[in-house]
Design goal:
Blueprint: E1 6-7, E2 10-11, E3 14-15, E4 17-20, H1 23-32, E5 43-48, E6 58-60, H2 65-68, E7 77-79, H3 82-91, H4 101-108, E8 114-120, E9 140-146, E10 151-153, H5 157-168
Parallel strand pairs: 7-8
Antiparallel strand pairs: 1-4, 2-3, 4-5, 5-6, 8-9, 9-10
Length: about 200
């Protein structure tokens, strides 16, 4: 186990995934010890990065964004216009040069091989000419990995399919394969996360 509120299982001598649990759950686990067999509990908040020589050993997991967002500084939470959100969903692993100048400026302040959260607030862009296909009523936050020249969205195929449908109005067969336009760089490969919470996609 880790510090207060966090726990993880050891695999091959290292923590693979870090979970967040309520204090009451943690107290029960501490009291019961080995007498309690835990199959699964908590919310995934961090996953070990598969990128070699990464500046940070762990990446943000989509499921844990709602719990972590209030505790992250502005440097790692970047508000983007709809055009940048669209680019991120369309390409999944877009080059930074495809983003707006302001987004590029904000991302440049974050060291490579580190997680950032890209946020689109529909309330602040209500008067924009280009808008999501489906009206969004909540902040849409997508955790990303900051590569040397690109961003990689930490979303799985199911989450990507939902975003394509609800945000861009595109419907894809569940068995279809999404093309990642800029996925040739191993260091910028897309990380896979767990099931999506509301803040990430499905109920926005």
């Amino acid at each position: 186990m880790l510090g207060r509120g966090f726990l993880s299982r050891m695999e091959n001598g290292m923590f693979r995934t870090v979970y967040y649990v309520a204090d009451s759950v943690r107290q029960i686990m501490d009291y019961a010890g080995s007498r309690l067999r835990v199959v699964n509990t908590g919310i995934k908040v961090f996953g070990r990065s598969s990128v070699k020589e990464a500046g940070c050993a762990y990446r943000l997991v989509c499921e844990g964004v709602p719990q972590l967002l209030p505790h992250l500084g502005d440097k790692y939470v970047i508000e983007v216009p709809f055009a940048d959100l669209k680019t991120l969903i369309e390409h999944v692993n877009p080059l930074l040069s495809l983003m707006s100048e302001e987004t590029q400026r904000r991302v440049s302040k974050v060291a490579p091989s580190c997680s950032v959260i890209m946020c689109y607030d529909p309330a602040k862009h209500a008067d924009d000419e280009e808008k999501p296909f489906t009206r969004l009523t909540a902040l849409l936050s997508i955790p990303c990995w900051r590569g040397g020249a690109s961003l990689s969205a930490h979303i799985n195929k199911s989450q990507l399919r939902s975003l394509n449908h609800r945000v861009l109005g595109r419907v894809a067969d569940k068995n279809s394969t999404f093309k990642l336009d800029n996925n040739a760089r191993d260091s910028d490969s897309v990380a896979i996360s767990a099931d999506s919470p509301a803040v990430c996609a499905d109920d926005a």
